[in-house]
Amino acid sequence: MIFSDSIVALSSGRLPAGVAVVRVSGPETRFVIETIAGILPEPRVAVFRRLRDADGGTIDHGIVLFFPGPNSFTGEDVAEFQVHGGKASVSALLDRLTAFEGVRHAEAGEFTRRAFLNGKLDLPQTEALADLINAETEAQRRFAAGNADGAQGRLYQSWRKRLIHARAMIEAEIDFADEDDVPGSVADAVTADMGILIGEIESHVEGFRAAEIIRDGFEVVILGPPNAGKSSLLNALARRDVAIVTDEPGTTRDLLEVSLDLNGLYVRIVDTAGLREAAGAVEAIGIERAKTRARDAHLVLLLHDMAGADQIDPAGVGSVPILHIGTKADLEPSGRDKPYELVLSARTGAGLTELTDEIARRAKAQVESAGDILPSRLRHVELLRDTLGFLRQAVERYEERDVQAEMLRLATDRLGRIVGAVDVEDLLDVIFGQFCIGK
Ligand SMILES: Nc1nc2c(ncn2[C@@H]2O[C@H](COP(=O)(O)OP(=O)(O)OP(=O)(O)O)[C@@H](O)[C@H]2O)c(=O)[nH]1
Ligand SMILES: [K+]
Ligand SMILES: [Mg+2]
């Protein structure tokens, strides 16, 4: 795809900075480089040049790189100017560049958009690039880097090829059923393979839970009666005073969240209002929020004050796993010993490492139980579920060849939408490639 306008943007981070990278992409790129730097450098070879203003003055000295299309990020001619990262120098360079006819400021994501439209990346890869830029934990980085490499798109394309092949077989059976050189009863084999594919897509979709944990975090909700030490535990895990702690029951009334990087995994810890019956209006709302949040969590830490008397009924968190924890281990126990899975003291720090290890272990287990390639967006999952819906119909209605062919077409289309390549030409290629139609 050829765009008539060229785009320019600061591609590196916030200014001021040691170095700033300004990128240009589009048909004016060569002219812009020659005019500003005085020469067009060899492709992909860095040259150090004086960058000239319109009146011949100096904007800055910097490195100039030229990536001729199609072997560039966007597929177009691309220039990179590496200059000093001062606000005024960068803005002078941007002013100079956008003053060229046909050159304008890029919109958000426009370089990547051009890369996609020029076939340099598929849609999951562009999404993975966004994830890679936003990655904060090691697990997020690894996940995004794998997808940026195109693993997800390759999987969907392989499924799509199977569907295109299946439909070609069915269509051939419809169109050429009376001819000798079309294999008979291929519909059975096709239907069997579609059954297998349904299983593969289903288990891939299940992996979305793991992808969500990697991207959005493993959520741990702290529950327990008032004064069990919930806020004290949150503060100890966060290593700062995030939550207010007093000896008054009912101190915490709303949800309070901190995020941690536990062994490279993103973990969110939520402090809640203490659960009790006799609560005022505000506290009661807080208790309701605590329960709701706990039902959506990946893990509940149920705290029991070992020095106190209260015990709490864990009912109402659904199927969320619960870790029973005895708190205030530094105090004299009340004698009502319960079998806790862990005991700790927020005051002395005893047991905290064991707790964070246990949380990290559980989070890791959930992430590692999924396959290597996971759907990374709700968009993917929704289209995969549509694909499954059409595939199930294709299998159920295999007696009606034309319905089956239509369901396979719709399923292929949905997979094509995930990667951003919906194309009818390849269907014809398969048909003509498999059978000697022109006899
Ligand atoms: N000795 C000792 N006291 C603790 C420990 N953890 C919490 N406390 C005390 O217990 C009291 C209640 O602590 P909080 O952390 O506010 O308890 P909470 O569960 O958040 O209470 P609510 O928000 O009211 O439900 C405070 O006086 C804390 O100082 C501990 O490990 N050892
Ligand atoms: K309290
Ligand atoms: Mg509290």
Automatic annotation (TrEMBL):
Q: What is its main location?
A: cytoplasm
Protein origin, superkingdom: Bacteria
* Enzyme class, UniProt record, top EC level: hydrolase
Q: Specify which residues bind (6S)-5-formyl-5,6,7,8-tetrahydrofolate according to the UniProt entry for this protein.
A: R23, E80, K120, K439
InterPro entries associated with the record: G_TrmE (IPR031168), GTP-bd (IPR006073), GTP-bd_TrmE_N (IPR018948), GTPase_MnmE (IPR004520), MnmE_dom2 (IPR027368), MnmE_helical (IPR025867), P-loop_NTPase (IPR027417), Small_GTP-bd (IPR005225)
> What's in the keyword line of the UniProt record?
Cytoplasm, GTP-binding, Hydrolase, Magnesium, Metal-binding, Nucleotide-binding, Potassium, tRNA processing
Q: What are the subcellular locations of this protein?
A: Cytoplasm
Which family, according to UniProt? Belongs to the TRAFAC class TrmE-Era-EngA-EngB-Septin-like GTPase superfamily. TrmE GTPase family.
What is its quaternary makeup? Homodimer. Heterotetramer of two MnmE and two MnmG subunits.
Q: What is this protein called?
A: tRNA modification GTPase MnmE
Give the species this sequence originates from.
Ollibium composti
